[in-house]
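Components:
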Amino acid sequence: MTIKTDAVGKEWPTTTYEVGKEKIGEYARVVGLENPVHFDREAARGAGYRDVVAPPMFCVVYSAPALGPAMFDPEVGMNFAAMVHGGQEFEWGEPACSGDEITTTAKCLEIFEKDGKGFYVFETVSVNQDGGQVVRGTWTNIVRGV
Amino acid sequence: MAELNTGDQIAELKVTPDKYLPHRYAGASGDFNPIHIDPEFAKAVGLPNTILHGLYMMGLTARAATEAAGGDPRTLKRLSVQFRGMGAPETEIVVAGTVKSAENGVATIDVVAAQGDNQTIRNAEAEVQV
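Structure:
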């Protein structure tokens, strides 16, 4: 069976997320981070940040909403019952701090078949209110038996 | 700033997520996929039980790499991982890493996260500023 690749290059509408101090703290506690720059405004400013700073992997909180419509797009046509999250890459730029407004765009980079599996690769690019790139994510989903 | 040289092992990070960790991670991250929080649903789709979020284990991988570089979150510049084995709650996760290269102020660390023999994250590579 030939995999459908019509969605390669497609972009979806942007989403915007306002980063908040307590949400950063909630995420940081779950992964066991204790650095006060994630909880305490004075500590963060003392370390040279504008405000309480998010851990790098907090990027999933503000970038994943842009990816939702892409994943469920019938033009992409992923079979969720046979899908696993196979790989993930993030490249970080500007730090994300409390009060930042981060806008994310999702795009389909690649769809291909290998060893009977379908690979669906999406990119998210997140920029802050000053236009600075905060993170670029590459999300690889693998679907068995395409 | 931490000093990292080619061949160095980074400090192992050992974490045993409790039974309700996936619920707290779901709340913190917004990912409420029921395979992570509902044992009946997980079993109905053929899993042994609820499984950990891959991105939670990637979060631990990021934490280990950041701590190796001295703990400042802005030192982590890039992290790529492959999710392989499924992670289970109430089982110790060990994140280990080896510095593959260190030049021009950037160290590249090969990282693995495992529960016993089950490597849940492999072929992971972190770039940190040192």
